[in-house]
Amino acid sequence: MARRQQPGTRRIGRLLEVCTQSARVLLGCEDRPDGRSVPCWQPLSKLLLAGGVLIALAIATRVNYGPFRRNFLLIHTLAEMFSIVVAVCIFALAWNSRDRLDNSYLLVVGTAYFFVGCLDLTHTLAYKDMGVFASVTVDEPTQLWIAARYVEAISLFAAPLLLRRTVRARLLLAIYAAATAALLWSIFASDLFPRCFEPGRGLTTFKKISEYAISALLVASLVLLIHKRRWFEPSVLALMGGSAIITVGSEMAFTLYRDPYGPANLWGHVLKIVSFYLVYRAVVFRGLVRPHELIFRELKQHEEALQLARDELEQRVRQRVAELVEVNEQLTREAQARQEARETLALQHRRFVSLLHMLPGYVGLHGRDHRTRFANHKFLELFGEPGERLCYEVHGNRDSPCPACPLTDDDLPDQAGQWQWTSSAGRTYHVWAYPFTDIDGSRVALELGIDITERKVLERRVLEISEMEQRRIGQDLHDTLGQNLTGAAFLSKVLGEKLSRRQAPECDDAAAIEELLNQAVAQTRSIAKGLCPVEVSLGGLADALEELAAGVRRVFEIACTFEHDPIDLLPPAVTSHAYRIVQEAVNNAVKHANASAIAIRARRRDHAFELVVADDGDGMPPGRDPPKGMGLRIMQYRAGVIGATIDVSSAPGEGTTIRCRLPLPRPVHEGHSAP
Questions:
Q1: If 0-12 CB within 10 Å is exposed, 13-18 middle and 19+ buried, where does residue 41 land?
Q2: Could you tell me where in the chain the CATH 1.20.1070 domains are found?
Q3: pLDDT at 35
Q4: Is residue 207 within a helix (H) or strand (E), and if so which, with residue range?
Q5: Of 34, 170, 449, 511, which sits most exposed with the smallest number of CB within 10 A?
Q6: How far apart are CA 341 and CA 352, in angstroms?
Q7: What's the per-residue H, E or C state across 528-570?
Q8: Alpha-carbon distance 588 to 619, whole Å?
Q9: Are 282 and 297 in contact (CB under 8 A)?
Q10: How far, in Å, CA of 616 to CA of 626, rounded?
Q11: For residues 644 and 662, is the Cβ–Cβ distance under 8 A?
């Protein structure tokens, strides 16, 4: 396998390609629009013509001094006027075609060259022997030259960066006008612009450094052009790249002269003519001769694609004409089959909609905007026509999306969301929301709600019966079995004493029986307290929670404390559920939180009875929802049965706090009756 070229090698190859193409375009060797080859004598004639011009300029430089000094001014003026005319033509072409351009490269370059031409015109007129400005020195034309080259280099560097961005033409024109005015003011009206030429010493350090900086910007602009070459015609890219390279040579020539009328200055202007000629070929010439190839390659690509599509269309039309009869018959058969498949689809659609309407639960199809696209009969019966109301507004006047709604996630989840909610009529619904992508590509969720009010009532009744049965069994164990075992233990003790007085050998057996019976009594009482901890304990909820804390300290060796305010007498069902909630919270702290200390608190707060279980365990990471295991669900259900609420708060390393809040009836004040 061939090795991949290194990035540096590829860049050098691109640069050489641009240089080669620039030479071909300069000599007129680029391909013609009609695809015909260029006669060999045309490039040779252009080469001879260019060589003749350069030889004439070289001869002219020999007579620059003394009485022939005005020859330099003539050549300099012609060179500058050529570049000024090219700059104005580029601006005119770019400005008048700005509304038809797909990007901003030509607009930026055209606007920049207009103001570069303005600065070059001022530079030409500012020469001392031109007689336009009376008080200028050699420094002002040199400053104007540097200012114009900075504007040109910065614009050529910025234009590829703005290639695919929209630029406001009038704002761009105003920015360049303001920048040009500021440069002219700094040169003629103030001393802000640094000196560039000093008589007797020649070029200043600022002028030389500026030429190198301008050259660096031009090289960088060439790199950007190569990087974005896919947006340009190859010949246009070659011309603009060649112009940048020759402009760098021109700037290097302007670092060598000591006399503004010297040969180095003249050759710099000659290279400038070549540079502007390449820009002229790239923009003005192609804008007038080949406007369809101007700057933006996609225009030509669109035209070529259109031509190709037209040719293909003609070929396909000819094929279609030849196969018209067969295609017509085939289309007829397909139309019949399609029509049959469309009655079938309609029947399936009606069957599916009928099934949705027959479901015992309500069905709604909701979009990402939470507006209802479909509602079955049950939905309309329960909530009415949704209209412009959002789905969560329809379901109980919520002001935010329902919990676990899949439409609120950034990514479409794979599983259905589930939640329960209670309507204003007191009916409880269990909801499944199935997310999927509709046929139009939009994101939707199918919501199915089932009325589980009777089931919730049955569950509550089963839980109450279970609690009653537990209390009954606990009471029976305590009152019957416990008493019987206690009596048997007492009789065993009496029997043992009688056998001891007789010194019978069965005395030890009677003592062992008494010990076993006492252990059975203790176990029976422990089981009874677990089944009915509050009612068995004469002290009520406070004593039961105190015994729970003592059991945790004894069995698990964890510091468990219980603090409480005076606890009012609560109904037995409330007392039992409250104890079970605390018991489940303590079990979670012991089993899952790795806690070393647990605090149980019972207190009154703002007409409410509050039970708090706080531990110093691991806690939960930030952003994670509270655990939703069976334990917490049972606690929440028990709280709902007695009209309380459960709140869970946790933080990493700070443990977990579970708070159960039970509203209490407000006291009846003297002089007022109860509501």
A1: exposed
A2: 10-299
A3: 46
A4: helix 205-227
A5: 34
A6: 16
A7: HHHHCHHHHCCCCHHHHHHHHHHHHHHHHCCEEEEEECCCCCC
A8: 12
A9: no
A10: 16
A11: yes
Which CATH superfamily, name and number, covers 359-451? Answer: PAS domain (3.30.450.20)
300 in Cβ contact with 109 (< 8 Å): no
Give the tokens for residue 326: 């067969």
- Closest CA relative to residue 613, chosen from 589, 629, 639, 630: 589
Comma-separated ranges of CATH 3.30.565.10 domains in the chain:
550-675
DSSP letters, 390-432, are: BHHHHTTS-SSPPTT-GGGSSS--SS-EEEEEE-TTS-EEEEE
Distance of CA 207 to the CA centre of its chain: 48
Helix (H) or strand (E) holding 448: strand 443-451
In angstroms and rounded to an integer, the radius of gyration of the C-alpha atoms of the chain is 48
How large a percentage of the chain has pLDDT more than 70? Answer: 74
Q: Are 386 and 372 in contact (CB under 8 A)?
A: yes
Q: Rounded to whole angstroms, what are the CA distances from 551 to 142, 317, 388, 520, 535?
A: 98, 93, 59, 19, 18
Sign, CA torsion 98/104/110/111: positive
Strands (DSSP E) contained in 545-664 are: 559-564, 597-604, 608-615, 645-650, 656-663
382: closest CA among 349, 416, 426, 352?
A: 426
Non-local CB neighbours of 279 within 8 Å, separated by 6+ positions: 86, 90, 113, 239, 240, 243
With beta carbons less than 8 A apart as the criterion, state whether 22 and 239 touch.
yes
pLDDT, tens digit, 9 for 90 and up, residues 169-183? 889 899 999 999 999
Q: pLDDT per residue over 430-489, tens digit each?
A: 888 888 887 777 888 888 888 888 877 777 777 777 767 777 777 677 667 766 777 777
Pairwise CA distance, residues 675 & 356, whole Å? 46
Our measurement of the distance from residue 254's CA atom to the centroid of its chain's CA atoms, rounded to an integer in Å, reads: 51
Token pair recorded at residue 249:
């040579």
One-letter amino acid at 615 equals D
- pLDDT of amino acid 287: 56
Q: What is the pLDDT of residues 244-270, one digit of tens each?
A: 787 777 777 667 666 566 566 666 777
CATH number of 10-299: 1.20.1070
pLDDT at 615: 92
Phi, psi dihedral angles at 509 (to 5 degrees): -65, -40
Q: Which residues does the chain have with pLDDT short of 70?
A: 1-72, 100-103, 233, 253-254, 256-267, 283-302, 396-397, 403-404, 410-415, 467, 475, 478-479, 482-483, 525-526, 528-539, 568-569, 573, 621-630, 665-675
